[in-house]
Write a structure and sequence with these properties.
By secondary structure, the protein is an alpha/beta fold. The chain has helices at 16-30, 45-52, 65-74, 90-97, 149-152, 182-191, 205-212, 231-236, 248-255, 269-277, 292-307, 309-322, 327-341; strands spanning 3-6, 35-38, 58-59, 79-82, 101-105, 117-120, 137-140, 168-172, 196-201, 220-225, 240-244, 259-262, 282-285.
Length: 344
């Protein structure tokens, strides 16, 4: 058995696709299944280090359906995982027709891809449906969330206690903060007037300068840090995370860290609404639209979270119970069973 993973990461595409695929790769390697990544990484150094640290090879991917199918055959792949919004949807069908099984990781819209297994780890995905090829399998919902070893190792037996004292904030708006939303969000936190210490991931020098220009109230402090792969470590020491409604939300829930979410991309809105409506996180809205009454409501939400440890603990407990960290094991079990049963 050999598995290829087709995904990209960088300033424009973000790091979420790669991070969840790394989690899947860790589980496959743990089961002695070789993995090779096909794609392009052009972002900060820490993104490429996710593969280098795990000795996971990366090579360019063929762009068109026929050449990608030929590449999969030449590499001897039994399965090709496709986690990309940019890859031509016809690639999945071409790869399958050439004899390599396909796992398509999707976020709501499967883009017409023809796959043997579909994975949608988003909240509420269980209720959605679409036409699939005969014999295909669909894995949907938070039971199949893919989390890396660095998160699973830090998961506490129970949700951490978020007591008194000055709250510690971690602000992390995606692997590259493609929307450059950190200054706007931290401006809202500063407007609460509540003391806090904040660590803010600043993807650009301009972001760090904008953060430095925020007028802080007495007792508030803010330290920008460069993008890093150590988000799980930083989060485990936080009383509140302010983050985008992407893959990092699952990590926070698994770690028992309460989150206040923003949605910075259209494909994040469904997950954002589902998490907030279930009480698994608090909602702030879209950073670019937080003006007037919307900004006031977001400031009130942050003020409440910063001054009420009980509310933070309740959110943390619900998230910790909801995500058990074993989703990747369930995905691998289902994938390997499906591939073994696939007709040649």
């Amino acid at each position: 058995m050999k598995v290829g993973i087709r995904c990209d990461a960088g300033i424009g595409t973000g790091a979420g696709h790669l991070i969840r695929c790394v989690a899947l790769a860790e589980e496959l390697v743990r089961r002695d299944v070789p993995v090779v990544f096909l794609g392009e990484i052009n972002g900060p150094d820490w993104i490429g280090a996710e593969l280098e640290a795990r000795v996971l090879p990366l090579m360019p991917a063929a762009a068109r359906p026929g050449p990608l199918a030929a590449q999969a055959r030449a590499l001897g792949l039994d399965v090709l995982v496709i986690d990309s919004y940019e890859t031509d949807p016809a690639c999945a069908d071409a790869v399958r027709r050439a004899g390599t099984a396909v796992l398509a990781i999707v976020d709501g819209d499967h883009r017409g891809q023809q796959a043997d297994v579909y994975l949608d780890q988003n909240l509420g995905a269980e209720q959605a449906s679409f036409e699939m090829p005969a014999g295909s399998l669909r894995l949907a919902g938070a039971d199949f969330v893919l989390l890396r070893d660095c998160v699973r190792r830090l998961r506490p037996d129970g949700p951490p206690q978020h007591g008194g004292g000055v709250p510690r904030i971690l602000c992390f708006l995606g692997g590259t903060d493609a929307a450059d939303a950190a200054p706007a969000v931290m401006g809202l936190a500063a407007a609460t007037g509540v003391p806090f210490t904040a660590t803010v991931v600043a993807a650009r020098a301009t972001t760090a300068r904008a953060l430095a220009a925020i007028e802080l109230s007495p007792g508030q402090s803010l330290v920008p840090v460069a993008p890093t792969g150590r988000i799980a470590e930083l989060a485990s020491g936080a009383d509140l995370a302010i983050c985008a409604s992407g893959s990092s939300v699952w990590e926070l829930m698994c770690l028992g860290v309460p989150a206040a979410l923003v949605h910075v991309a259209d494909n994040q809105l469904i997950g954002y609404q589902a998490a907030v409506s279930r009480g698994l996180a608090a909602g702030l809205g879209h950073p670019a639209r937080l003006t007037g009454a919307a900004a006031g409501a977001a400031v009130e939400t942050l003020q409440r979270l910063l001054t009420d440890p009980g509310e933070r603990m309740a959110i943390a407990a619900r998230g910790h119970a909801f995500i058990d960290g074993r989703g990747r094991e369930r995905v691998c079990d289902a994938l390997l069973d499906a591939v073994q049963l696939r007709p040649v």
